[in-house]
What does this fold into?
Amino acid sequence: MSTKSFACAGFNHAKFSRRCALKVGGLGLLGLTLPKLLAAEAASKAKGIKAKAKSVLFLFQWGGPSHIDMFDLKPDAPEGIRSLHAPISSSADGIQVSEKLPLTAKIMDKVTLIRSMTHTMKNHNSAGYYALSGHAPLTDDQRLRDSVDLFPAYGSVVDRFAPGPAELPGFVAFPHVVSDGSITPGQHASFLGKAHDPFLFTQDPNAADFALPELSLPGNLSYERISARRELQKLIDQQSRLLDFSSEARGMDSYYDKALAMLHSEKLRKAFNLSEEPAKVREAYGRSTYGQSCLLARRLIESGVKFVSVYFSNNIGGRSSTSGGWDTHGFDNTRMFPIIEKYHLPITEQTLPTLLNDMDERGLLKDTLVVWMGEFGRTPKINANISRDHWPQCYTTLLAGGGVKRGHVHGESDKHAMYPAKDPVRPDDLAATMYHLLGIDPHTEVVNTQNRPILLAEGNPVMGVIS
It folds into this structure.
């Protein structure tokens, strides 16, 4: 008799009936215990989803890049709406990009552009949380604050449901903590527990003295001595029965065990040693915080880390033309947007093509899903300050590798790039697509802080982007 015939109707990990529990008890006589049944159910759910990607590199463009000035230019739209940049052809038939991105144009045959991303959150923190977790907040409120009641980061979900090698962190995030007035939710494990928090650092990979003290042992302590201390701590915890009563303590216990494994990982220390890269490669990525972060991300993916998040900036941007995120509606100028012209596009033009070409040449792109996106786009209509405001109703996301089509456009915007005209894609759907490509059932249930079962993703995988 198959395990499937024993399963209770509507059975899930988060919640099952008393009748189902009695059935499970009876199954123990046949050697099918509850843990085995749970494992069988999990395997059944995952069955049929074949992973096309082994890892994800998530490049978050905080502030909201202008889709109409990069990947969806609308040259035939009226003045005041169409891009101020001329379109140029790319390596993919039918795909045009901004004239300011000639190198990026050459890698369009490696990517899929989703030109129909859409939602309704106009504030950075609420839209940022939606983009980082795949779950919309209840209200569009700039005062949204981080909370364990809110959904976890993608990387934490991946670390929980598709963990990588034990000696490596499953989720690494750097070199910023994203915020706008307050820390934006969706950057850590939340109710999944601290054991699935990212290995987060904010040191600048472009700094001459870049190093992580977290991966170095004090001179007077050996790994064996620290390991012995850890075993002693476990014994004390067990004696006090702390682990029986505190889920937070259990999470910290797993977190400490991971940290200890990382200390002993030569592979991880090697990945963080950027000085091993030839000077020519480092220059190609760009000697900037973002450029060297992308290079480090490639090294971490190469070492076996499952999910890497690189944050473009810690702030949304503002009046500076030399630093900050993609927010551009605070300028007062006569033509173009200084930060886009002088900073955003040049740094993207140098780093993104270099990264994708490098990963492709190393054979990494086939198994790594690269996601380049912001929390929303910009208004097609240029405002009185010769600038563009927040626009979540329609914007573009770029995907590459990891089982997605090459040289492809999914969806389309209307004639003014204001609303999706075909195949709208919500952040919920993009989240489901990422999980699906990693072999994770996006409709797996987890339990939140209210002990309520909820889905990893409310959307559906966008099968039109999958190769």
User: Anything to note?
Assistant: Residues 1-46, 229-236, 238-247 have pLDDT under 50 and may be disordered. Residues 82 and 105 are 19 Å apart (CA to CA). The radius of gyration is 23 Å.
